[in-house]
## 1
Amino acid sequence: MLSDAIVTLSCPDQPGIVATVAAALAQRGGDIRVSQQFGDDQTGQFFMRVHVQVPAALTLADLRAHLEPVADAFGMTWAVTDSAERPAVLLMASREGHCLNDLLYRWSTGWLPVEITAIVSNHETLRPLVERYGVPYHHVPVTPESREQAETRLLELVDSNAVDTVILARYMQIVSERVCSALAGRLINIHHSFLPGFSGAGPYRQAHERGVKLIGATAHYVTVDLDEGPIIEQDTVRVEHSLGPQELAAVGRDVECQVLARAVRWHAERRVFVNGPRTVIFR
């Protein structure tokens, strides 16, 4: 039974969008609880997220059918979802388990509004951790010779588990253009630096060599351009000269966990809109 729905949309900006959407929802007995919108003067795009209460007898299909003429008239990219829906996610990690463990813990407490359906790793290292949470663990080794086969297996798991989003929780393999295309807008990575600084491998070593006073982490959508996808969330922490590369990494792990958790939650709650190389986020 539907009681609350989330309406998300983007389209070329023009007068009357908010009024028309609000009127259409009111026609079906919708009571808007939260409405957030943003018009980007640079791109000419308009973005909107509406949390609306609807009569219990109204189905998602009914609401979508009612809004479809409005969406067509404004040329919208849009979606209507049940606010209680928890999207299925697949987590990927290599040997370091701090981000993976943090997401699993937050999910187990109910803070993270997703369903974790599977874990994929190119190593066996994290299996004991994952099995404590009762989540299926799939060891998919990656070598230069087996990379294409491994990615085929990944995409099979995405399909068989009806996965909405894949999270790279310190998965230390570069994904191919094939995977980026198949999961466009549904593949999130945590990079252990405050991008665009120190992209690529070894960011804590790079940060130490440069003597930075702040280190950070960046959660972003993955594209074919390494570490250059639209940024969802970032944060930093102050450090000092006495910390070596390993100590910087230890400090950075907490920031990585927090940044990735916020990004996954906002994505799951349909708060993130891709706006070219940037994002719009309604917190």
## 2
Amino acid sequence: MVRILTDSAADFTPAEAEKLGITVIPLNVTFEDGSVIRDSIDMTPDEYYQALSRCKKLPTTSQPSPALFEHAFAQAAAEGDQVVAILISEKLSGTCQSARLGAEMAGCDNVFVIDSTTATLAQALLVRLAVRLRDEGKPAAQIVAAIEQAKKHVHLAAVIDDLNYLRKGGRLPAGVAFAGGMLGVKPLIAVAEGRVKLIGSARGLPGAYVALFKKVEGMGGVNPRFETAAFYTENPREVEPIQTYLTHNLHLSQPHLGQIGCVIGTHAGPGAFAVSFFDPDLTL
């Protein structure tokens, strides 16, 4: 049997993970007082954003320990299963390295570690695709090949309310954050080639949606054969225009809706929302 494993940066809720039959390894968030929470386990996103608003210093995030991966991989090996692990971009986190160390510690040769080169909802779309292939009875090697191909065609574009969260977290250079953070301007970012990049800006919230949808078109448009996703940090109403764009303008199925979790939300900050999709060049 093939097991699909991911990390909490994919922002699945525990209920979603159980329904999909996947294993989620949590990343960590450390507050200024030294207390540590496990992403998606110890706090809900809403609880976390309330705590974040009271922080004088931005919390830090860190990858899971190799021991967590070792346990998951050894358990799978004991039951004769192979593991396809689809993890947050190696350029954003040390999670892939922890997974590889965990596989070495477990002495396992049943593990395939995939650097998704992305995060959050785009990472989740890759995981959902792997689940679909698993449920179709595809072997691990075929799933890995498909995901390695699909990750070249998955896109994530987001509107950020305050780039200082990305700057303070080291995910965006200070000069770029300053240039994109003018008063009244909503910056647009993407995860491209594994890194966070500033891709534009717009004045006001209505302008931000227009700019976001133009970026979607500029990335090649949406492949109707595959699923889409729309996520938010604090306000679920902020993804309603994205739903309308995908379902009414493009006549696509409803996107997967979700809330950006503690780790990614630390860097995205409150007031962020995003869309993810596969472009039309993806064929499997």
## 3
Amino acid sequence: MKQVHVVKRSSPFLVALYFALAIAVVLGWNASGFSQEYKQIVIATGSPFELGLVDEFAKAFQKKYGGVVRCIKTPTGPGLDLGRHGLTHITMGHEREATARFVREGYAARRIDLMHNYTIVVGPSKDPAQIAGLTDIKEVHRRIAQAKSPYLSRGDGGGMNILEIKTWKELNINPEGEKWYSVSKKFMLASLLDADKNGQYHMLDSSTWALHKAKTKDLKLLVKGPANEYEMCLVNPAKHPHLQYNQDLAEKFFDFLIGEEGQRIIADFGVEQYGEPIYYPAAVNVSR
């Protein structure tokens, strides 16, 4: 399994480097041009890669079909931007409005529900904002703001960050600049560990928590919110003709993930090691 890490978006130089790396992945690393026999596809996603699920997909797919599956680890928003620029064959993300806009713009040849986990909020065991047991994410954020309790935002343009921004807007609250509000500009695991270190509330997905909660010292799962639904898009090669190369392999990978074998990988992932599902497949007939 090959990977290119996402870089922070705050620096124009780093953004340029990020897209340069993405181009190198799509076109292959061979400076003299790649052989027609060299089959590779690029996936853009975040937590499913960070937590190891994409590796499981890749191992099973490559064993069956050959080729190379590469991944650019990126939050949902930047991942869709990679698709807009023709720098990935497939996107996986969990922000429906952003994905719907991507589809309306004509960048997706195919779109489908792939799996889900849950939106959760963790926080200090003393729970100063008294959010334990709530299920309404808006009410959770209202109480945190009202109590001025320390809160850590990822601020990375990912699906969870998009949901957070939307929630503050619906509450007519602007937390930026407030002493109790911080932004990490980091991915999920790093942000979770920062929140634990600093005693902050933090919103993330249930999968990251299930795999890494043992690394925290004073955070508790306080809120289990709505399903966090992952959608997968096959980027439209009509928008970017160079994606026609290996399009057949990308389509096979797309179909593999939504077929019985791919959905079974989702259902089984992490259960033996962690004692609970990490993701839940969209196909009901393979659910645990």
